[in-house]
Amino acid sequence: MADPTIFDLSVAGRTGVTFPEPDVPETSLPQGFLREKLPLPEVSEMEVVRHFTKISQKNYAIDLGFYPLGSCTMKYNPKINEVTSRLPGFAFTHPFQPIETVQGNLYLMYTLQEMLKEIAGFDGVTLQPAAGAQGELVGTLIIHKYHKDHGDTQRTRMLIPDSAHGTNPASSAMLGFDIVPLATDARGNVDLEVLKSLCDERLAGIMLTNPNTLGLFDENVCEVVRIVHEAGGLVYGDGANMNALLGVFRPGDVGIDILHFNLHKTFSTPHGGGGPGSGPVAVKKHLIDYLPDPVIGILEEGDEENAPFYGFIHPKKSIGRVKSFNGHFGMHIRAFTYIFMLGQEGLRDIAEKAVLNANYLQEKLKGTYTLPYDRRCMHEFVLEGFWKDVEGIHALDIAKRLMDYDFHPPTNYFPLIVKEALMIEPTETETKETLDRFVDVMLKIAEEARTNPELLHDAPHNTPIRRADELKAAKDLVLCCYTGDDWPGI
Amino acid sequence: MFTPHTKHDVEVMLKTIGVEKVEDLFSEIPSQFRYPELDLAPRLTEMEALNELENIASANATTKDFISFLGAGAYDHYTPAAVDNLLQRGEFYTAYTPYQPEISQGTLQAIFEFQSLICRLTGMDVANASHYDGATAAAEAVILAYGHFRNKRKKILVSRAVNPEYRETMRTYMQGDESIQFLGDDIETGIAPDLQKFIDQIDHNTALVMVQYPDFFGRIIDYKPLIEKAHEYGALVAVACNPTALALLTPPGDFGADIAFGEGQPLGIPLSFGGPYLGFFALKNELLRKLSGRLVGETTDVEGNLAYVLTLTAREQHIRREKASSNICSNQGLMTLAATIYLSLLGKHGFKQVANLCYQKAHYAADQIAGITGFDLVDETTPFFHEFVIKCDEPVEEVLEHLMHHEILGGYDLGQAYPELKNHLMIAVTEKISRDDIDYLAGVLSEENHG
Fold it and tell me: Could you tell me if A418 and A427 are in contact, meaning their C-beta atoms sit under 8 angstroms apart?
């Protein structure tokens, strides 16, 4: 049952927080511009605190349990990140302060750029993009501008493997590219024959996720890059799955031209219930001049006595600015803290344990659930969420039943190339005990599907609400709460 | 550190998998590229890392150390303690996007309340769960309007008094379509663009007219004539607005805006050198189907209980792929929660109080500064909210440097974004600034003039 809304709790005359009376002589307000009513809630501080505490308890969260959510890298978010990002020295700096007063911020951003370059094997990085999807947009903007500058306006085709995230086609479409789906071969790699047939003078580029969304490392990656480059295209790497590669493999080393990172996946910044993310983009040398304006650079080199002087640099052929100010600086601090603590050794350990956990789960589950691409997986793998001999059970039912056992479900119905997909990414921060418990539950659910399918159909049973009617929500739209006649509603 | 595996765990797991060592798990990666040497500093413990980070942070001067009159899109407001305290609940900040409503009612209800608060504040019918920030919300308004007319109306008319970063960002977003024209902000008109001339440019080829309220220079303008003309020609009107100002001012919904959007940072979000913030975005019912970004709606569960879910997802990229209205696939989750808690705590009375304090103190500051020789209030007639423009006899750079020596962040140098406004300083005043701070600023400025 839903709690009352904050508006339901409102009682005329209450206020949670008050401010001092004006200490300056009063100026009259601009008549003719004043609103009559301000229909905001009137609630005491304690009631506000109880309200939000109560509703928070209806959330599942990493701090509460296991989130084997494929492609989302729901790893533990270290508490130290929340401390460092809130240090007053960072939190109380205004984006337009003179650069000599924010050398700490600029040093941190510059160093994070350098660290990301080093980790992925690139020559330039922008921290400006707000999220992975905006990182992709930056990538497609760069590809678009690069071809335009080279007079290649006929390059309008973007190849996107059928296993790609939905944002890839959407980001490409924003630049007017024609989306050409690219088939996956029987081993889950990009189909090289199909790729060759699509590479001609119309090719703008390819958006490649590696490891792909099947959790498989594309064994043809070097070939793919070579073929696309020979045809004059650029290779965009979707770095959503970088967690598998930290300290093990650098996408830049095989010639990938552009790559975005998801700081909120790979580098432990929290998901925050859907954001804010952060999606820095790395490029090779030939694309540095196209990065969003500005990037952080050294304006004056340091010497033995003085630290370098950091500031903003404006790339010569920049695609322009993609958001206000300097990107999600609070997320940069968290990612910086994380990388700083790990070093090379720690980063490699992250990737190795993420891949170890995934392969362990895959091995334990593949007998009971069908594994359509039976190969060594990287940080995640995809199972089929149905059985030919069990009627009427779908991936959704398995997902919902997992909630009854206090697990967050895996990503389901994605990637689209696996029927009733269950995409499982355990991450490196989970213990073997948790993985074993998850395996037990998954096996039990497989058994329940045969012996007592209603348990799955009706699941979940003991969550704050039961299965919600999503069709009704879309049909009888209520998108905002209103009370009484002071609000027109919709 | 963040991996819990014991040596024994690893051995057992490798045995289960059927390989000898962890390295064997990576055999599909071309061997010449495996395990590159990384030039990174050696790993640190938490204690050491915190020390380092504290050192880095201490290299900054902050709005706590200095008296700050900086605004220009991000404002130093007071955030009540309960906001961050609630934000740090792991149930909120370590949760994923609420795709599974049964175990995400907390996030969903908070977004639903956020949407409701934004609707009430702006006077609009529908608000989404947020865009990245004010600038990207502006870009989304352009995308929406352009698509609304099926890319047939080619003109986007945008006032020069709209935040320069918003104008830059929307141009970046639209560079894939060369037929689209941005007009209205190209002539160097200073702080008082001729509104009538601007209105005269509206025609049947105009998809969107964008203005700011209060405008970038802090001025409160009556947009009713502009909106009437735009609607006469069938164009949409988007109004970028400052949420704090809306505690006092007639909301855009009441004077006919089709879209109201803006930077949500003033709603309890720390300055944090520019992010993360949030872009709020609200519109009239008629445009609902064109709205991009996440939306939460009410529904019931199988037992008939009230419940919240993400809705109208068929518009979004994970379903529609290249036909989606935008590629956005997140919202500013935790930042919208901060804004929701902030508005709930301040409520009707507290929020109005903050806006009034900003207004009163800004006017006192303007009066004090305008009384100093060498500093003139540029526009003495148009009402303003909490930000105003001062013309200086001396270069702004020098004025700001002088102020900095007195531990004052003096404001925003308009010459950076407006070549015609060299020697123009924009000053923002919030409730955190005291009368003493303002008198001190005026004192130092007088010194500047006579020193």
Answer: no
A484 at interface of B, judged by CB pairs closer than 8 A:
no
Confidence of residue B244 (pLDDT cuts 50, 70, 90): very high
Q: Tell me whether B285 touches chain A (CB under 8 Å).
A: yes
The residues spanned by each domain of chain A are 81-341, 345-472
Q: CA nearest B107 in A: which residue? A: A273
Which residue, B325, B402, B412, B4, is CA-closest to A174?
A: B325
As given in the structure block, the two tokens for residue B451 are 């020193």
Helix (H) or strand (E) holding A404: helix A395-404
Other CB atoms within 10 Å distance of the CB of residue B157: 25
Range 55-114 of A in CB contact (< 8 A) with B:
55-64, 67, 69, 72, 74-78, 80, 82-98, 101-105, 107-108
Q: Give the A:B interface size as CB pairs under 8 Å.
A: 677
- pLDDT band at residue B189 under the 50/70/90 scheme: confident
- Given CB atoms, is B371 within the 8 Å cutoff of chain A? no
Q: Judged by CB atoms within 8 Å, which residues 23-62 of B form the interface with A?
A: 25-30, 33-46, 49-50, 52-54, 56-62
Which chain A residue has the Cα nearest residue B363? A27
Do residue B296 and residue A479 have CB atoms under 8 angstroms apart? yes
Distance separating alpha carbons of residues A486 and A38, to the nearest angstrom:
10
- Element (H or E) spanning A399, and its range? helix A395-404
Query: Is A342's CB within 8 Å of B18's CB?
Result: no
Rounded average pLDDT over A183-201:
94
Residue with tokens 């509206």: B202
Pick the closest to residue B94 from A77, A431, A331, A275 (CA basis).
A77
CATH class of the domain defined by A81-341? alpha beta
Q: pLDDT for B132-144, tens place per residue?
A: 999 999 999 999 9
- Residue A450 corresponds to which amino acid? R
Q: Do the chains contact at A87 and B54, CB–CB below 8 Å?
A: yes
A174 vs B contacts (CB less than 8 Å): 143, 173, 176, 326-327
Q: Please answer yes or no on whether A119 and B328 come within 8 Å at the CB atom.
A: no
Structural domains of chain B in order of their starting residue, each with its CATH number: 67-78+347-450 (3.90.1150.10), 82-341 (3.40.640.10)
Per DSSP, A270 falls in state -
The rounded distance, in Å, linking the Cα atoms of A389 and A161 is 31
Closest among A254, A281, A244, A264 to A380, alpha carbons compared = A244
ipTM of the complex: 0.97
Backbone angles phi, psi at B186, to 5 degrees: -90, -20
User: Chain A: nearest CA to B200, how far in angstroms?
Assistant: 24
Contact (CB<8Å) B49/A82: no
- pLDDT tens digit sequence for A319-371: 999 999 999 999 999 999 999 999 999 999 999 999 999 999 999 999 999 99
User: pLDDT of B16-65, one tens digit each?
Assistant: 999 999 999 999 999 999 999 999 999 999 999 999 999 999 999 999 99
Domain A345-472 has CATH 3.90.1150.10: yes
Gap from B265 CA to chain A (nearest CA, Å)? 11
CA distance B372 to B370: 5
SS3 for A48-110 is HHHHHHHHHCCECCCCCCCCCCCCCCCCCCCHHHHHHCCCHHHHCCCCCCCHHHEHHHHHHHH
Mutate to test the interface with B, among A106, A296, A465, A476 (most CBs of B within 10 A): A465
- Residue A469: strand, helix, or coil: coil
Q: Phi, psi (5° rounding) for residue B62?
A: -120, 175
Based on its alpha-carbon atoms, the radius of gyration of chain B, rounded to whole angstroms, reads: 25
Which residues 424-453 on chain A approach chain B with CB closer than 8 angstroms?
428-432
